[in-house]
């Protein structure tokens, strides 16, 4: 039996603090007898010896027990491309701004590494979405997303004309800037900026959020996770584009059809803290909760014990 342990470290090398954090992580993991992999295009900036330098590819996370990500949500989404095929959990250390996908903050870095060394973390699965792009029935592209897939106009001065379909039935035409199809994980990302609802991660659903639509009925929609959502670009409209997680893109010719469904493979996230999602929202957005007396009120409303008058 092979007891060798391996961790893949993915870094936002454009940030000096991320590079310093990576060097600390690698030093501590190596000292604990854990092999460390880094991406070839990041190795020079990190400058550490004794690491396995790997070319980027689907197999880079194979056999890694965790993928540690040092950066913001953009870096974590990039790492998800590497971790998802191998089923390796992502552990994000937030060095960006809001960092909803990250599990730890920079001040917790040393303790986070210790948790990895001792395997003291939980793993949860997050729903993804798969997309299929067709034209005249022929598949012209595929993709996937952890946060969202977005159909957008390519020309700023022109409106995008689309028709939305849910489970094989037409819903509405929209003249708009685009349409976001998101997971619950992505409800706090682009869909949130477009006016969509915040959905708790354990809820299984897909969101459909029109962007700046000129239509009477253009409300955000929450549909079944097993639904098939299709966005068709009207034949007479200008060219459009589909983005997956703001990273991968595909041009859409007039008449293209983008089909969105539950992803066949989830993304795994390593969790250090079983913090309620409500608390994460309050912390990340700095929400005001002054005056909340829920716990004391709950105690006051407890029924009297037997024998009390």
UniProtKB/TrEMBL annotation:
Coiled-coil portions: none
Primary localization class, coarse: cytoplasm
Annotated active site: 73 (proton acceptor)
Co-factor requirement: a divalent metal cation
Source species, domain of life: Bacteria
Reaction(s) this enzyme catalyzes, per UniProt: NAD(+) + ATP = ADP + NADP(+) + H(+)
Family: Belongs to the NAD kinase family.
Binding-site list for NAD(+): 73-74, 78, 147-148, 158, 177, 188-193
Entry function: Involved in the regulation of the intracellular balance of NAD and NADP, and is a key enzyme in the biosynthesis of NADP. Catalyzes specifically the phosphorylation on 2'-hydroxyl of the adenosine moiety of NAD to yield NADP.
Keyword list, A-Z: ATP-binding, Cytoplasm, Kinase, NAD, NADP, Nucleotide-binding, Transferase
Subcellular location: Cytoplasm
Gene expressing this chain: nadK
Name of this chain's protein: NAD kinase
Molecular function GO labels: NAD+ kinase activity
SUPFAM superfamilies assigned: NAD kinase/diacylglycerol kinase-like
Keyword match Oxidoreductase: no
HAMAP family (alphabetical): NAD_kinase
